[in-house]
Design brief:
mainly beta; glutathione-dependent formaldehyde- activating enzyme (gfa); 8-stranded mixed beta sheet; binds zinc ion
Length: 153
């Protein structure tokens, strides 16, 4: 896979590029991701923030409370509503959890980790060689353990 890779929302008002590979690509089968995506699961490509660049437009942010003091920043196009990336815990988060279906070329994306398999829809077949978690672990390899606010989704 070569970089940069480009992507954007459905209407084209917001465009971005990533200049380096993801730390990980994961699928999340939690019910929040099912609701947000309107589908069976969500995917995320965890991109270090220095490798994520907006090249057109400014996305809008919806903050979802994930606990008493925790929020998930959800960034989307204000014109077409396409969800573009998440920042668990907000601005202290060192990555952008990019919704990788918004990339122009999605052919190279393979989720190697699956979260919340206990709420996966029954017809979803998770590959044998994937790492799977019933829910999601407290400590994630690509996230420094300095804060418990830095969780995926
Ligand atoms: Zn748009
Ligand atoms: Zn989720």
């Amino acid at each position: 896979m070569s970089f940069p890779q480009t992507g954007g929302c459905q209407c084209g008002a917001v465009r971005y590029e990533i200049t380096g590979p993801p730390e990980v690509v994961y699928a999340c089968h939690c019910t929040e991701c099912q609701r947000q995506s309107g589908s069976a699961f969500a995917m995320a490509a965890v991109i270090p923030q220095e490798h994520f660049h907006l090249t057109r437009g400014v996305p809008e942010m919806f903050a979802r409370a994930t606990g008493q003091t925790k929020t998930m920043e959800c960034w989307f196009c204000r014109d077409c509503g396409t969800r573009l990336y998440h920042m668990p815990g907000g601005t202290s988060y060192p990555n952008r959890n990019v919704k990788p279906g918004t990339l122009d070329d999605t052919s190279w994306l393979v989720p190697t980790v699956h979260f919340w398999t206990r709420s996966a829809q029954k017809w979803v077949v998770i590959p044998e060689d994937a790492i799977r978690y019933d829910t999601q672990p407290e400590i994630l390899g690509w996230i420094s353990p300095r804060s418990d606010e830095q969780r995926p989704e």
